[in-house]
Amino acid sequence: LGSMTWGEQNSETEGHQQLDYALAEGVNFIDTAELYSIPPKSKTYGRTEEIIGSWLKKRGQRDDVIIASKIAGPGESWIGHIRNGKTRYDTANIESALNASLKRLQSDYIDLYQLHWPERKTNYFGQLNYSHRAESFTDIEETLLALKKQIDAGKIRYIGLSNETAWGAMKFLQTAEKLGLPKIVSIQNPYNLLNRSYEIGLAEVTHREQVDLLAYSPLAFGVLSGKYMEGTADSNSRLNKFEDYVRYSNEQAQAATVEYVQLARDSNLDPAQMALAFVNSRPFLGSNIIGATSMAQLKSNINSAKLSLSEDISQSIEQIFIRYPNPSP
Question: In sequence order, which residues have a C-beta less than 8 Å from that of residue 271 and are 6 or more positions away?
Answer without folding.
Answer: 224, 225, 226, 260, 261, 264, 265
